[in-house]
Amino acid sequence: MNTLTRLIKAKKKHLVVLSAGSLQSGISGLSLISEGDTAEIIDSVFTPYPLPVQELLAQWYTSAPVLPSLTDCIWLDYKCSRLSGECASALLARVPKSLRQPHALIVNKCLLYKKALPQENNNAIWNWEIGDEQVLLKMFNVPVISGFLRADICAGGIGALPLAIGDGEIARRVGGAVALVNIGLFAHLTIVDGPGGRIVADTDTGPGTCLINRSAADAGLASGFDRDGSFAATGTVQTEALAKLCGHAWFMENAPRQFTMDLAGEFYPCADLDNCAKADQVATMTALTARTVFDCFKRGYKLETPPKAIVISGGGAHNATLIKYLKTYFDPLPVESIETYGIGVDQRTTFSLGFSVAAALRKGISEVPGKIILP
């Protein structure tokens, strides 16, 4: 039986899901057993990017990207490919021996760049990801499913991951309507209408940690970012500057919207904060993320009953001050970590992607919203 036949016929599929984050992140790995319309998380790992990778990625994640040399780009592609393999190997070393040979790998590669390119009559979106599926193919000799962003673009979309079915499963676990807030460099809001899994809203809300990181780096924090929010906690939010930042025209646009690093450059440095203490600047940028998430929720939530919870995931979930601000804005609605529902804060995208692709596989290979590379 070849690997594709094995993948199609298996009623209980063991899927290894890998999702590469952006700057100051890493690769999330998830071992998922899919059977029928259910999925069970067996184990998970998180492989952070080493410093040389972070330094090269940082050149892309600025408002005016400084393009690395061709040699550096090749090295970055090679290194991310190897890191994906190492993440998968570390994950498989943790699962029971009977699961050491997965049926397939599902891979969301690291996105370097996604841009709307001006054409004669409209804009054409294109993307650039790094990492080579052939490395994983050689290491594990199983089908590799990837290329989700490109597949969505080619189908007329904006380059989004197929997460809807997995997000619906999270809503089922919560037990009602839910607002999922994923805070990476940018913050993203997904509102799911209860057990039926209908997506009501799905949009970027604005900056996530990108402006917090910039202000923290300018403040001279040794790590270059305020991961746990302890520095912001020593500052005072400058309410007038915050109100002015929240009045930016981008926040008035109708959803769905996409935030970009180019846009981030319009918010920071902020002249209204020039004479403030560094801690006040970081506190204000932290409050900006929380406030704009809440404002987007207010505009986008159209259901008759309130959500069961505001569920937080992503790197921003580690920032205690950001969580405190979110709880203040959303009160009396409960703000909870996605860990409450058995999913790690760094694994929300990984879980939703794996669950959604598993659902597509049940319908047939032709339903998979990406490309399948076979050994």
What does this structure look like?
The chain is α/β, with parallel strands linked by helices and 375 residues long. The chain has two domains: 3-160 and 347-373, ATPase, nucleotide binding domain (Nucleotidyltransferase, domain 5, 2-Layer Sandwich), CATH 3.30.420.40; 164-341, ATPase, nucleotide binding domain (Nucleotidyltransferase, domain 5, 2-Layer Sandwich), CATH 3.30.420.40. 37% of the residues lie in helices and 24% in strands. It has twelve helices and 13 strands. It has a six-stranded mixed beta sheet, sandwiched between helices. It has a five-stranded mixed beta sheet with strand order 10-9-8-11-12. Strands 5-6 form a two-stranded antiparallel sheet. Strand 8 (178-183) and strand 9 form a beta hairpin. Helix 6 (164-174) packs across helix 12 (348-363). It is globular and about 70 Å long. The two termini are 13 Å apart. The mean pLDDT is 93.
